[in-house]
Amino acid sequence: MPDLLVIKSCFLSCLLALLQTSSSQQEEQSQLLLVSFDGFRWDYVNRVPTPNFRALMDEGVQVEQVENTYITKTYPNHYTLVTGLHAETHGIVANEMYDPIHNRSFSMEGPEVYDAWWWEEAVPLWVTNQKAGRKSGAAMWPGSDVAIGGTYPSHFLSYNASMPFEARVEKLIDWFLGPEAINFGVLYWEEPDESGHNLGPESPLMDVVIADIDEKLGFLRGKLKNAGLYDKVNLIVTSDHGMTQLSHDKIIELDTYVSRDLYTWIDKSPVVGILPKEGKLEEVYNSLKNANPNMVVYKKEEIPDHYHYRHNVRIMPLIIEVKEGWTVMQNRNGSFMLGNHGYNNSLPSMQPVFVARGPAFRRDYTKASMRSVDLYPLMCSILGLKPLPNNGSLSSVQDLLVETSTPKPVVPPVPREPSYAWAVGSILGAALVIGFLFIFVQQVTQRQLPPLHLTNSEITQPLL
Ligand SMILES: *[C@@H]1O[C@H](CO)[C@@H](O)[C@H](O)[C@H]1NC(C)=O
Ligand SMILES: *[C@@H]1O[C@H](CO)[C@@H](O)[C@H](O)[C@H]1NC(C)=O
Ligand SMILES: *[C@@H]1O[C@H](CO)[C@@H](O)[C@H](O)[C@H]1NC(C)=O
Ligand SMILES: *[C@@H]1O[C@H](CO)[C@@H](O)[C@H](O)[C@H]1NC(C)=O
Ligand SMILES: *[C@@H]1O[C@H](CO)[C@@H](O)[C@H](O)[C@H]1NC(C)=O
Ligand SMILES: [Zn+2]
């Protein structure tokens, strides 16, 4: 009976196709990879040919300058990118911190980094993604090898500065492909920050470093393509801050103005926390207030509003900020670098790069600026997650995303409602299964078994 065989195989293939469609519609989650090249200033892409950054701009979006959050240092800003909060709210207010109430100190180079207590004033996006029943993967993003709120990323690498970029990328690709496949990944690389500090951003040697970052981005693009992920994964490439050139002629020695015995020095130039010894606040403040025209000292309550940097016990009673290009240390024995960041977040030199591409993003679209706090609601929208309270605004960056005829609903994470398409797919699939079974049973029973006393109408009617 060749015609029946044809019908059967057609039923079977239609059935399989439908089942695949409905199950992929059920499980399809937007995929997102957030990459930070530490200290990649916004204008580095214009300095040397950067074909891989250019490709992402052509295929996606570019935001020319990102206004990051104060202080423009690595730990505060990486936590802002994944929480949408200013440093005073997420609690990682500096690379080096002191909590005078609990008498605890934090250094990004010390073991306290792994103490979740420092991080738990906020919840990073990888945790929120997991709470919605999905998997996240993290390759050395600051804070991602810490059990924040008791939760590690589903997959992560313990921090190891010696692990090459390429090895980090390969891990992430493996995680996207499963088992336990992630839909959200974060990737961190230490350059061009390290070279920017050592060489100074104006050094011609930085051109080589920037070209190397572009090649690394090319490596990542190639790996995503080879894995069949390039057109599925939304890829965001950004950074925590920029970099500015320093000079040996622009050093402020605090010992010149006030005795070290009167205060504790927290963190490093260009923004330093000063914790005066008991009863010495006014004395220290008055000694520093008009001491040097290239240095400003703020009482905590006078820190400018636009810094959003006041409401946290980890911010010291006095903070010193020096002008762009200046370095403050206690005396010249302190370590000097040719490049630094940390200054006023409104300075163009402090602002990082931003390019992104993927199914969620518009093509060949350029926007002049955004705030780094807006990235969090943007990523939540792409992932279909309800954002936690944050300082960003989706509407400020909505224009980066493809316009959908109906705005993408922010689905409550759990439980997931089956979609309309899924329901239709399931009903059709079930209809086909029963139809197929009917023909199959008919065939089998005709050949091998005594006839069953069922009529066509008895079986098919419920389906019609
Ligand atoms: C604060 O901690 C340090 C050691 O971390 C200790 O030496 C010091 O006595 C403590 N201070 C107070 C007031 O408990
Ligand atoms: C860090 O990474 C390097 C290079 O991949 C590796 O040789 C080394 O064993 C790693 N260190 C640790 C502690 O895992
Ligand atoms: C700087 O360090 C040297 C050697 O360690 C020391 O002799 C000198 O007194 C120090 N200078 C100051 C200003 O502390
Ligand atoms: C930071 O820079 C902006 C832009 O130049 C300026 O308006 C603002 O006053 C600066 N803030 C401080 C505290 O210096
Ligand atoms: C930032 O957001 C947090 C959480 O909603 C809020 O508590 C805080 O006041 C906000 N900060 C600013 C400057 O609006
Ligand atoms: Zn950094």
TrEMBL record:
Recorded GO CC terms: membrane
Segments traversing the membrane: 420-441
Key words, A-Z: Glycoprotein, Hydrolase, Membrane, Metal-binding, Signal, Transmembrane, Transmembrane helix, Zinc
Topology in membrane: Single-pass membrane protein
Cofactor: Zn(2+)
Name of this chain's protein: AP3A hydrolase
Main location: membrane
PANTHER family the record matches: ECTONUCLEOTIDE PYROPHOSPHATASE/PHOSPHODIESTERASE, ECTONUCLEOTIDE PYROPHOSPHATASE_PHOSPHODIESTERASE FAMILY MEMBER 5
Organism: Cirrhinus molitorella
Any GO molecular function: hydrolase activity
